Amino acid sequence: MGNPPPGRSRTWTRAGAAVVAAGLVMVCGAGCRSIPLSGDARAGVEPVELMRQAAGALVRAGTSQARTSMEMATGGTRVTIRGEGVYDYAERRGRLMVRLPQDAAGTSERRPITELLAPGALFMKNRGAGVPADKWVRVDTAALSDGNLVTGGATDPLAAAEVLRGTRTATYVGEAEVAGAPVRHYRGTADLARAAELASKGNRGSLRAAAKGFASPEVRFDAYLDDRGRIRKVRHRFSYLNGRQGDAATVAVASTTLLFDFGVPVAVSLPRPEDMYAGKIAEN
């Protein structure tokens, strides 16, 4: 993979951010120079409508490479999970290698988890929790209280774009640069319930579950689009209740997705039935 330029619905414990890490940005710096986006045919489109069109622009782009970062914080505990891989937006399939943070002592390297993303499903290999290292487990994303916007340690790139279909407010912030590409920076809020209504069939159930399971269906975002309306970077801020009712803590999540190398060859094959794990998965 090239480098860019300079299962189940569950109840989370109070240390939810750390649990996610155990079970399982590239931000343009202050020195970014402003680059005019000459020839941008979308410059006259209202920001709200432009955000709602972003997922369609990715489907037209076909494929890309992706890098992800998920930061979770609760009760003084903060963890960051990173991933990288490829995605085919037309086929709605992707592959990510998700790397977990070190253990509490900072000395033990955890093996990365291979994740395959498909409509309504998340497949994981090297999942741990009693699953043999050579077996895959399948999770129905619509059955997860967060719709797999958080559980997998990375937000599905197409789902991240489809969240923007529910954009309620958006404003143009200014010009910037992401991974060498000139972009326009927008900031706004999206409603998950509205996004679910407008999402593709494969993401509809997942976004509907997230709208019900999160502390609030409102998602704050920063989106960076190129002159073709394609997302180059999007950062979402979620919050969900971690723990049983009456004893739940709010977990703040910032999920960043960086997209680059559009048009790169992508082939994602889902696991064969004989490669799936049929046993019980230990609870985290």
General description of the model:
This protein is 18% helix and 36% strand. It has helices at 16-23, 47-61, 157-163, 192-198, 201-213, and strands spanning 63-74, 77-88, 93-99, 113-118, 121-125, 136-140, 167-178, 181-191, 218-225, 231-242, 249-260. With 284 residues, it is α+β, with helices and mostly antiparallel strands. It has one domain: outer membrane lipoprotein receptor (LolB), chain A (Clam), CATH 2.50.20.20. It contains 5 helices and 11 strands. The protein has an 11-stranded antiparallel beta sheet. Residues 1-41 have low confidence and may be disordered. The chain is globular, with a radius of gyration of 18 Å. β4 and β5 (121-125) form a beta hairpin. The longest helix is centred in the first third of the chain and has 15 residues, at 47-61.
Mean pLDDT: 82
Task: Tell me the distance between the termini.
Answer: 32 Å
Which sequence of strands runs across the widest sheet? 6-5-4-3-2-1-11-10-9-8-7
Q: What is the highest CATH level, the class?
A: Mainly Beta
According to DSSP, the number of beta strands is 11
Structural class: alpha+beta
What count of domains describes the coordinates?
Answer: 1
Helix content: 10-25%
Which radius of gyration do the C-alpha atoms yield?
18 Å
Q: Could you state the order of secondary-structure elements as H and E?
A: HHEEEEEEHEEHHEEE
Secondary-structure map with pairings?
Elements lengths: L15 H8 L23 H15 L1 E12 L2 E12 L4 E7 L13 E6 L2 E5 L10 E5 L16 H7 L3 E12 L2 E11 H7 L2 H13 L4 E8 L5 E12 L6 E12 L24
Antiparallel strand pairs: 1-2, 1-11, 2-3, 3-4, 4-5, 5-6, 7-8, 8-9, 9-10, 10-11
